[in-house]
Amino acid sequence: MANNGNLGFPAGNPRFTVQDRAEIKNQAPKAYLLSQDPPAAPGGHPYKPKSVGVPVLLGIYIDKNQRNLDQSAHGGIQKLADNQSISSGNPVNYNTGVGRVCLAVLAGSDISGTITITGTSVDRNDASETGGDTEAVFVDVLTTDSTSADAESNLVHKFENLYISNKWFKGAIALSTTDVNLSDLDVYNIAYEQFNDAKKVIVKTFDSSFYATNALAWLYEYLYAVHGHAGKKFHIKNIASHALTSGDAVADTTYRLRVSGIDKTSTEANLNTSSDGLFSDLHFGPTSQTYFSNFSQKIWVDYYGK
Asked: What is the three-class DSSP state of 195?
């Protein structure tokens, strides 16, 4: 049977005419040079290309858990001191690893002013160190610490208005002030994944698999988002979690725990990682035992670049 041109319609089809073919040709997509403006949408507004995220996987693997060790991945938060007092002429000193300094301002008679951090800073791009460096942190509101504990007494962090330094500090640091008077200050070291400072990262899935060797095994995992807002104030919130609770394990059994669609259940999953980021905490139990092996954790995000 003869075809009508190269369109695949049989010759003599009364429902397809030469005029139809001309109309199809006129409506066919046209190519545009990159230097040209795209055609206007109805109403005169230009079309905008849709931004597409690239799936990126953050993964870790632990061959066997260690006794008496709570672990973190892609960063973590560590308390250096709690219930501290600081005022003019009364500096306080601490030792940290390498990371940002966090201040939880919980009580005081004068909470508006500046706390100066002094110590050796580490450049986050080339690892160069500057001794005696300083950073001023302006505080003006109290931190809300809503940290709780799960069924096995593991901490589940939650902070609003936590003050975090821009600079990374290493080793001995001193905190001083000339104008605040705080009676309850908690000091932390924090590190978290910032995806090379991308402007947009969306957290999608939290996924783990492992082998439990004993029916007494239990496991808790928490994925945290760190969000910066006005000034150097941040909040930290758990956006996804896994739990194999005590009494639920079967000896010598493989498990997979997965939470997807995190971006649909938590606005905290949308990160501007020029300031924001994430980390996870892992709690294996009983802590005095090594009941877990072949543990892998995967965090899937959509990465939109810089």
From this structure: helix
CB 88: neighbour CB atoms within 10 A? 13
Is the domain of 84 the same as that of 221?
no
Give the total residue count for the chain: 306
pLDDT tens figures, 30-69: 444 444 455 555 555 555 556 788 999 999 999 999 999 9
Task: Say if residues 200 and 166 touch (Cβ distance below 8 Å).
Answer: no
Query: Is 200 in the same domain as 68?
Result: yes
Query: Distance between CA atoms of 199 and 182, rounded to whole angstroms?
Result: 35
Contact 141, 159 (CB under 8 A): no
- Identify whether 37 is part of a domain: no
On whether both 163 and 255 belong to a single domain, the answer is no
In whole angstroms, give the CA distance from residue 236 to residue 158: 5
Query: Per the structure, how many domains does the chain have?
Result: 2
Evaluate the CA torsion angle 256, 301, 241, 294 in order and state its sign: positive
Nearest-angstrom CA–CA distance, 219 and 160 = 27
150 within domain boundaries: no
Sort strands 159-177 and 75-86 into parallel, antiparallel or unpaired: unpaired
- Span 165-198, pLDDT tens digits: 999 999 999 999 999 999 999 999 999 999 999 9
DSSP codes joined into one string, 226-250: EEE-STTEEEEEEEEEEEE-TT---
Q: C-alpha distances in angstroms, 281 versus 18, 138, 157, 248, 296? A: 68, 29, 10, 21, 13
Tokens representing residue 169 in the block = 């500090």
* d(C-alpha 34, C-alpha 55), whole Å: 26
Residue 87 lies in a domain: yes
How far apart are the C-alpha atoms of 42 and 25, rounded to whole Å? Answer: 20
Residue 283, both tokens: 């709690």
